[in-house]
Write a sequence for this structure.
């Protein structure tokens, strides 16, 4: 049951009010007044009824009520609490939700903060509230979805599997680290090419070789800032020799010996010469004009005679004394001749138990001196050697262990000791004590295992190699780093760490050990603050750090929403509505004056259809990117009437503020309406 309460139902003068389908069962029609200059009537079911028959407390019931017209504005009951106009439901607060087809949402509740989605004429739905960093992504067919992180980057074309194209990329700074394309396969940083494998050869000026191939095994030669060149592979025995002006050359044989000063025409000077063996036949200078073998003088100085002997025939011969041949038969077996100078032109055999040469120096031209000659084996040669009388100094052979023994130090000065075995029970360079082998700057073979308190390399005092601890050595007290040993500190070019997180970004810390950040999560980037260690950020935090957060003022050359950016400076493209609210609160304005003459000015404007002129690629980036057929206005015509609605861009072309043009059109409509009403009033 619905109740219609009306303060006054007034018929036109001489007319009547007709109510069809009125039920009066238990009800009355309330009439508080009947207006006009006479009592009127209402017609109930085609019968005139005096309105006075309806009491003030009645509640009449009607099937329908016609409002103002008998057929097109019928008011009827739809259901409990709801009414129809011509069968169309009238929506009310607390009633049926207003459907989309009638300009409503079709829903009585929508998620607070949820993005609304249309569905044809079905009810509007609301997405869940977007999580931090989420964006809405569509697929062109179904409902869009919320995405973030790697999924979002893939959707917008900057995922790990994508190949986005940029004109340039700023890295960490807006102007001094611009990454751009140099040519196919190559990139620049601030116009400087970045070298890559297979690309342009790195020139010498940038720390490279300037060459893409170098001879395998060839010695490399510099050439100022020109490319490094490689010599041909050195042949066996060749060495590199320079002349101090041009490129060095490879030499060998006599040419090389001449270059290094030991040619046939040279007079080289040596401290000592090893003859046939590295340790037991050392020829050295004893004094002016005197040579020594193993420290024993063997060649007399100039002016002294050398014995030369020969045995001729069956024993008959001669010896030459002071240049005169003397018959050996003149000497008896018991004689002890004494000669100032004696030359034996043949072999000299002394048959006795002891041979003594009382000379200051002994010169032996033979290449080998044999001791214990005739001994059957090593045991028979035991004890053979040299003894220095008065010094108790011996150098003797010992059969046990088959080795040489000496009871005094061996001082080699700057000469070389070479051995193919170990130097046992000896200490080098420790003070020439008993049974010590004293040597300075001596060579030790790769097969040896000598023990040294310290070793001087190349110099006696500034490159001392010593033991630091088990497995470690020092050079002048500075630790030499090795695999598996102490971590190489940053101060010495190392990391100071023995393990770094796999995939972690490394951070320096002065001379302290390098540290590794945790592995970056999907979508994280490294952001620094200019003072402390950088941190890993993603989502909204990252966008704020890189200056594209919700609170940042961001400038782009061009911008695309739902489509690629056009590349035209200052242009925004969108595939859907661009919704914004322009500040228009009256409280913000003063000197408000209605526009006048708007209609006449609008009459001077044209709404036109047209085709955009074709532009070249450069013009598209600086003027506009529109193509094909379009509709609009002519900027020059707008400028003639409302110059404040037209701006001249940097490229010299005019642009119209279509938003503000709405105010002009609004005022023109009002002026037109006033004219229409004035005309109607005159009729």
């Amino acid at each position: 049951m619905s109740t219609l309460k009306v303060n006054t139902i007034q018929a036109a003068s001489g007319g009547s009010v007709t109510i069809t389908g009125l039920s009066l069962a238990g009800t009355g029609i309330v009439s508080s007044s009947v207006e006009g200059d006479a009592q009127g009537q209402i017609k109930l079911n085609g019968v005139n009824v005096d309105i006075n028959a309806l009491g003030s407390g009645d509640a009449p019931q009607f099937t329908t009520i016609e409002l103002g017209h008998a057929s097109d504005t019928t008011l009827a009951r739809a259901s409990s609490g709801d009414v129809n106009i011509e069968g169309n439901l009238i929506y009310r607060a607390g009633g049926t939700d207003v459907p989309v087809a009638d300009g409503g949402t079709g829903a009585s509740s929508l998620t607070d903060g949820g993005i609304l989605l249309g569905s044809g004429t079905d009810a509007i739905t609301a997405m869940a509230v977007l999580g931090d960093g989420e964006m809405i992504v569509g697929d062109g067919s179904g409902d869009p979805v919320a995405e973030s992180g790697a999924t979002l980057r893939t959707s917008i074309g900057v995922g790990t599997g994508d190949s986005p194209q940029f004109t340039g990329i700023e890295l960490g700074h807006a102007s001094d680290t611009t990454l751009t394309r140099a040519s196919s396969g190559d990139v620049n940083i601030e116009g400087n090419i970045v070298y890559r494998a297979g690309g342009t050869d790195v020139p010498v000026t940038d720390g490279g070789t300037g060459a893409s191939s170098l001879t395998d095994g060839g010695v490399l030669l510099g050439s100022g800032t020109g490319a490094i060149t490689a010599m041909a592979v050195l042949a066996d025995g060749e060495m590199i020799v320079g002349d101090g002006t041009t490129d060095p050359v490879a030499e060998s044989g006599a040419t090389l010996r001449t270059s290094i000063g030991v040619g046939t025409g040279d007079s080289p000077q040596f401290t000592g010469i090893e003859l046939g063996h590295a340790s037991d036949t050392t020829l050295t200078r004893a004094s002016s004009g005197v040579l020594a073998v193993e420290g024993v003088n063997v060649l007399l100085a100039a002016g002294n005679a050398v014995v030369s002997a020969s045995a001729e025939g069956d024993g008959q011969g001669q010896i030459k004394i002071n240049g005169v041949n003397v018959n050996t038969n003149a000497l008896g077996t018991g004689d002890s001749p004494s000669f100032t100078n004696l030359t034996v032109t043949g072999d000299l055999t002394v048959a006795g138990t002891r041979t003594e040469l009382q000379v200051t120096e002994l010169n032996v031209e033979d290449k080998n001196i044999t001791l214990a000659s005739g001994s059957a084996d090593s045991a028979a040669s035991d004890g053979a050697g040299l003894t220095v009388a008065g010094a108790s100094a011996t150098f003797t052979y010992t059969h046990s262990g088959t080795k040489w023994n000496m009871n005094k130090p061996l001082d080699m000065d700057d000469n070389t000791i070479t051995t193919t075995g170990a130097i046992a029970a000896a200490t080098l360079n420790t003070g020439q004590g008993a049974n010590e082998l004293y040597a300075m700057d001596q060579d030790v073979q790769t097969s040896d295992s000598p023990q040294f308190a310290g070793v001087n390399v190349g110099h006696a005092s500034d490159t001392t190699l010593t033991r630091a601890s088990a497995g470690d050595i020092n050079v002048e007290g500075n630790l030499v780093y090795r695999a598996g040993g102490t971590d190489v500190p940053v101060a010495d070019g190392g990391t100071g760490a023995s393990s770094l997180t796999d995939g972690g970004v490394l951070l320096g810390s002065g001379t302290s050990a390098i540290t590794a950040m945790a592995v970056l999560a999907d979508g994280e980037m490294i952001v620094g603050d200019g003072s402390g260690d950088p941190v890993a950020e993603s989502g909204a935090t990252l966008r704020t750090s890189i200056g594209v957060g919700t609170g940042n003022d961001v400038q782009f050359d061009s911008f695309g929403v739902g489509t690629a950016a056009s590349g035209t400076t200052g242009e925004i493209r969108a595939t859907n509505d661009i919704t914004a609210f322009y500040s228009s609160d009256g409280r913000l304005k003063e000197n408000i004056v209605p526009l006048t003459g708007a209609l006449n000015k609008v009459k001077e404007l044209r709404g036109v259809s047209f085709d955009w002129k074709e532009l070249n690629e450069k013009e598209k980036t600086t003027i506009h990117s529109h193509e094909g057929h379009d509709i609009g206005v002519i900027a020059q015509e707008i400028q003639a009437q409302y110059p404040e609605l037209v701006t001249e861009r940097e490229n010299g072309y005019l642009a119209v503020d279509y938003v503000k043009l709405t105010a002009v059109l609004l005022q023109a409509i009002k002026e037109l309406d006033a004219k229409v009403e004035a005309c109607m009033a005159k009729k």
